[in-house]
């Protein structure tokens, strides 16, 4: 019985019939059509919004509608540009994939029904093992009052249930759908793979990453024992990018009867694309890991013999690399190929940092809500006390609960995250001024919060990635923009109030529109600048000395990004728990100073002891807040530059530097507690109060750097989103705890000592935990 007549258990052929091949071609073409119509749909919606606003303004004679026309008009231009670029690229790739079953066809097979059920159970159970961290994650996340209220509020709960249902339908159901030969199959062709309803367009491993193509890194045929059933599995490693590099692994079950055929097919698939091909089922390895580019003296005979004995006669299409190597006089073999070092020019790095800073400046707009126009919203719309608390809490929910933004950052990159978050914030700001129902206003502010939170996460993520050490001056400048964001929005709104001279309760709608103008004018240029960012521009090399004493350059192997379920295991790590406690202590102690400054200084020098209220003395309390803000910004810059200098020279790591900073400010809080109780009438106390802002600035810079150092820049979005939960909890819990402690003891002294203890415990735990494990 030939290869093309291998029967299934049910008597069917394992290989695809002509009709099934035709159906698969139709599925692929429909996928390309859907891909090409996405942008035109948004283009039509934007154009319709422009026409609708024009007509609404003409019929109602209200000028407010004309105010929003620039937003969708800009969308028309952006989507029009994307349609032009996207469609040209998609048409070219579609022409290539149309030949999958013609001259480029290599082989195809259907999955066995019985073995596929076992394989699905294996993959599902493997993923479910990572859910053990969900319990810890949920327990910590539920401590935030805003999250608790969210799940007790019916309108939002309904929206979340609908979203979860859509995720199940789109992602979970296809895995367990009934057996279909055109879905549960694999098609291999020159430059493309089709399996489980998805098409992967391929290019050589050494090619520059592309947003619509996958780099074929390696192919392995291996045998796995799955619930007592021996199964052959074809494992394919791919890499792609959408403004960020992402690795993906495909595991495809191979019928036992087709093992020899697939063995040959994978060699044909790899030819010209990758040199890492192996067959673990027959103990035959074609090529080992790609080695370092060597000179003729360093090229060993064993590597040559390995290439000669390989069953796959592979040729690697990397002409630019071979040309460079030959010019240097080096002997080139396929396993000696190395992607050359590429680094972005300084002007590009500076421009991206400027864009990230512009985005970060808008990140504090929701934090400025309480200090500007929240009271007017509450009075004008008649909010209840519960709705007032919801508005204050949910407006910053997206900034603190950053997990959605972190996932988008990891899988799609900062440009997509920034632009998506920008449009989300613009949508919220645009429609909230037309609403009167409290729950709709709160819903719009949730969208605004997630929008500006995503904008800041995109800026923070790109500042981490463009630094060779995961921190330094890039993240310092961006964090400094975030530190000055609240002050900028408050000052800008005060200036707008003086110009507009509007004091009625309805004026809050004008203030919201003013914030919308600031968002468009500042954040949009920053988001568009991030289009210049590509992770491949910042590939850093390390030096390694070989056995002969010569220095070789070796490309740092990219670590495969962790999945969400894998990242949740971090809540069992002592190091991360120390980091979590440290972020809670750092943010909580800073919120303690910011929210209680006037009461603290009143305890230090009571009004009764001041005699007549001297304005110069009262101004000291305001000056403390002002100096705190400047120390915060100065701490951003100083900590970033200094920590980067020490880490790049391997003097100390970021986590060690953070431990020292927390220990220092633990002592500062102890001194503040002692001075408050025993040393009156000294300027040292208000100066130290303001100096705690320097520590807050250090935390804003170093904690992201430690996260990137410990878990990798490619995982920064996910792990920092988990860490942000601690700041959310601190912002809610700290004022309550401080108030209760002060009421019970009659002094803020014990609050100072409590902050000092938390900072010191975190510093010690982080230092010890870092020595044992990162995770």
TrEMBL record:
Superkingdom of the source species: Eukaryota
Subcellular localization: Membrane
Membrane topology per record: Multi-pass membrane protein
One GO cellular component, as annotated: membrane
Ranges in a coiled coil: none
PROSITE patterns in the record: MFS
Major facilitator superfamily (MFS) profile domain span: 575-775
Nuclease among keywords: no
Ranges annotated as spanning the membrane: 37-59, 65-85, 131-150, 156-173, 349-370, 390-409, 416-436, 442-466, 473-492, 512-533, 575-594, 623-642, 654-677, 683-707, 719-738, 750-769
Keyword ATP-binding: no
A Pfam family matched in the record: MFS_1
UniProt GO MF annotations: transmembrane transporter activity
Keywords per UniProt: Membrane, Transmembrane, Transmembrane helix
PANTHER family: MFS DOMAIN-CONTAINING PROTEIN, MONOCARBOXYLATE TRANSPORTER
Protein name: Major facilitator superfamily membrane protein
Organism whose genome encodes this protein: Planoprotostelium fungivorum
């Amino acid at each position: 019985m030939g290869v093309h007549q291998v029967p299934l258990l049910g008597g069917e052929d394992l290989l695809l019939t002509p009709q099934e091949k035709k159906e698969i071609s139709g599925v692929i073409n429909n996928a390309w059509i859907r891909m090409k119509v996405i942008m035109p749909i948004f283009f039509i919606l934007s154009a319709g919004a422009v026409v609708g606003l024009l007509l609404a303004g003409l019929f109602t004679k209200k000028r407010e509608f004309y105010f929003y026309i620039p937003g969708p008009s800009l969308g028309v231009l952006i989507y029009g540009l994307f349609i032009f670029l996207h469609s040209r690229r998609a048409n070219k790739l579609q022409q290539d994939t149309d030949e999958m079953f013609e001259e480029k066809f290599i082989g195809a097979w259907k999955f066995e029904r019985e073995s596929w059920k076992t394989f699905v159970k294996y993959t599902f159970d493997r993923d479910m093992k990572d859910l053990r961290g969900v319990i810890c994650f949920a327990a910590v996340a539920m401590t935030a009052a805003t999250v608790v209220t969210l799940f007790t509020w019916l309108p939002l709960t309904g929206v979340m249930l609908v979203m979860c249902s859509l995720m199940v339908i789109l992602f979970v159901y296809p895995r367990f759908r009934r057996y279909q030969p055109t879905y549960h199959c694999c098609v291999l062709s020159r430059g493309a793979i089709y399996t489980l309803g998805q098409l992967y367009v391929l290019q050589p491993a050494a090619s520059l990453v592309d947003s619509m193509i996958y780099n074929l890194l390696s192919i392995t045929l291996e045998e796995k024992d799955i619930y007592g059933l021996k199964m052959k599995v074809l494992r394919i490693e791919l890499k792609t990018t959408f403004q960020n590099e992402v690795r993906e692994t495909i595991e495809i079950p191979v019928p036992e009867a087709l093992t020899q055929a697939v063995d040959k097919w994978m060699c044909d698939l790899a030819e010209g694309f990758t040199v890492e091909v192996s067959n673990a089922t027959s103990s035959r390895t074609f090529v080992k890991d790609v080695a370092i580019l060597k000179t003729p003296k360093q090229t060993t005979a064993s590597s040559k013999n390995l290439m000669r004995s390989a069953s796959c006669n592979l040729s690697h299409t990397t002409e630019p690399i071979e040309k460079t190597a030959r010019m240097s006089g080096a002997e080139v073999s396929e396993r000696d190929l190395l992607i050359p070092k590429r680094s972005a020019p300084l002007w590009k790095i500076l421009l991206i940092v400027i864009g990230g800073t512009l985005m970060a400046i808008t990140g504090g707009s929701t934090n400025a809500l309480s200090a500007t126009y929240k009271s007017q919203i509450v009075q004008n719309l008649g909010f209840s006390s519960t709705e007032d608390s919801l508005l204050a809490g949910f407006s910053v929910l997206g900034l603190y609960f950053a997990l959605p933004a972190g996932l988008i950052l990891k899988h799609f990159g900062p440009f997509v995250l920034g632009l998506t978050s920008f449009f989300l914030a613009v949508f919220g700001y645009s429609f909230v001024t037309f609403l009167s129902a409290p729950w709709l206003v709160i819903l719009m502010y949730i969208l605004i919060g997630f929008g500006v939170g995503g904008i800041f996460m995109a800026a923070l993520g790109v500042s981490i990635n463009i630094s060779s050490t995961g921190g330094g001056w890039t993240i310092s400048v961006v964090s400094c923009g975030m530190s000055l964001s609240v002050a900028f929005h408050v000052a800008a709104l005060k200036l707008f109030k003086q110009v507009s001279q509007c004091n009625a309760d309805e004026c809050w709608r004008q203030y919201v529109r003013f914030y919308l103008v600031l968002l468009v004018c500042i954040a949009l240029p920053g988001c568009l600048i991030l289009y210049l960012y590509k992770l491949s521009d910042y590939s850093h090399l390390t030096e390694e000395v070989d056995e002969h004493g010569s220095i070789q350059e070796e490309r740092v192997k990219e670590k495969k990004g962790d999945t969400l379920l894998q990242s949740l295991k971090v809540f069992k790590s002592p190091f991360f728990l120390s980091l979590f406690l440290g972020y809670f202590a750092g943010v909580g102690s800073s919120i303690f100073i910011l929210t209680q400054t006037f009461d603290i200084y009143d305890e230090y020098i009571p009004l009764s002891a001041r005699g007549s209220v001297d304005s110069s003395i009262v101004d000291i309390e305001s000056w403390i807040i002002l100096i705190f803000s400047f120390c915060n910004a100065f701490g951003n810059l100083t900590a970033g530059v200094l920590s980067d200098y020490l880490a790049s020279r391997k003097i100390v790591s970021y986590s060690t530097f953070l431990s020292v900073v927390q220990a220092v400010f633990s002592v500062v809080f102890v001194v503040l507690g002692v001075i408050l109780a025993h040393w009156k009438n000294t300027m040292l106390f208000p100066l130290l109060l303001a100096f705690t802002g320097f520590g807050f600035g250090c935390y804003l810079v170093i904690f992201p750097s430690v996260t990137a150092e410990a878990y990798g820049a490619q995982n920064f979005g996910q792990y920092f989103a988990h860490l942000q939960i601690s700041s959310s909890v601190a912002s809610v819990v700290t004022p309550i705890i401080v108030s209760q402690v002060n009421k019970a003891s009659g002094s803020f002294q014990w609050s100072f000592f409590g902050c000092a203890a938390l900072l010191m415990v975190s510093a010690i735990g982080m230092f010890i935990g870092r020595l044992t494990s990162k995770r």
